[in-house]
């Protein structure tokens, strides 16, 4: 005599599917929160553009000096093979003296380096053939601060830097922008 196989209670598949979907949606902000909570703070020199999106408000599109092809080609580890699109790892060293100054790129590779010197971090990015993108290229500002930041950009662009946190896997989260001694 065959006994019927146990069946999950009615509705349990619905709840399981719902839990899976909610978990997947929660994974994205959790990753950024983990980077913000545990990441190493670094600073990168930036060259901003100032667009405005009517749906999202004022934001600054950031371009990083260490991410430009002209900079990458000069780094130890660069080869023509790295010039193809794909994931690259940028090795950064802290500045001598003031740690709030821009960090310096000291190496580039296709594989994540494991032999970091004390204080160094690795930043993972997608190389598109022209520049390395880290997923931190847009910074949204309150409307009132937009005019103030634009003024700072016009008068002292060399003082602009991004405050970034980098987790042990090379993922980055943008924390803030600095113009001189003022943080946005």
Number of discrete domains: 1
Model regions low in confidence, pLDDT < 50 over at least 5 residues: none
Share of helical residues: 10-25%
Order of helices and strands: HEEEHEEEEEHEEE
Distance between the termini: 74 Å
Give the C-alpha Rg.
22 Å
Q: Output mean pLDDT.
A: 82
Describe this structure in words.
With 184 residues, this protein is an alpha+beta fold. It has one domain (40-183). It is 24% helix and 30% strand. The protein has a four-stranded antiparallel β-sheet with strand order 1-9-10-11. It has a four-stranded antiparallel β-sheet with strand order 5-4-6-7. A hairpin with a 5-residue loop joins strand 9 and strand 10. It is globular and about 80 Å long. The model has no long low-confidence stretch (mean pLDDT 82).
Short description:
By secondary structure, this protein is an alpha+beta fold.
How are the elements arranged and paired?
Layout: H1 12-38, E1 40-45, E2 52-53, E3 57-61, H2 69-72, E4 86-93, E5 104-109, E6 121-127, E7 132-133, E8 138-140, H3 143-155, E9 160-166, E10 172-179, E11 182-183
Antiparallel strand pairs: 1-9, 2-3, 3-8, 4-5, 4-6, 6-7, 9-10, 10-11
List keywords for this structure.
single chain, 184 residues, 3 helices, 11 strands
């Amino acid at each position: 005599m065959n006994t019927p196989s146990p069946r999950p209670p009615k509705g349990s598949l619905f709840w399981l599917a719902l839990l899976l979907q909610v978990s997947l949606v929660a994974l994205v902000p959790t990753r950024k929160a983990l980077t913000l909570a545990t990441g190493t703070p670094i600073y990168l020199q930036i060259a901003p553009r100032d667009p405005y999106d009517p749906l999202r408000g004022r934001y600054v599109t950031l371009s990083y000096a260490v991410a430009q092809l002209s900079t990458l080609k000069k780094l130890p580890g660069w080869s023509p093979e790295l010039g193809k699109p794909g994931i690259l790892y940028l090795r950064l060293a802290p500045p001598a003296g003031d740690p709030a100054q821009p960090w310096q790129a000291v190496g580039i590779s296709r594989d994540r380096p494991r032999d970091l010197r004390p204080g160094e971090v690795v930043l993972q990015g997608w190389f598109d053939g022209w520049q390395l993108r880290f997923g931190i290229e847009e910074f949204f500002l309150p409307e009132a601060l937009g005019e103030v930041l634009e003024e700072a950009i016009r008068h002292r662009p060399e003082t602009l830097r991004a405050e970034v946190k980098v987790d042990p896997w090379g993922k980055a989260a943008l924390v803030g922008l600095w113009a001189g001694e003022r943080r946005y």
